[in-house]
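Database export, one record per block. Field names are fixed; values are copied verbatim from the stored entry.
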Amino acid sequence: MWNKIQKQLEIQNKTAYWLAKKSGIPIQTIYSLRNNDNADTSFQNMEKIADALDVSLDEFRTKKNA
């Protein structure tokens, strides 16, 4: 999931620190997500990240075969 977030940060020329400030999510949580320590982040945090980046939550979905 972090790869998709990182891609959006790069497109927008933003940093993880900016994302933490803009979303209100502690920087430690952002770093944990980046380091895959917290692969199952909460829906609320993903919503905050999507809002901060001004993208749809669908940008971060992983497609699974039925």
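Remark 1: DSSP finds four helices and no strands in the chain.
Remark 2: Residues 43-53 form the longest helix (11 residues).
End of record.
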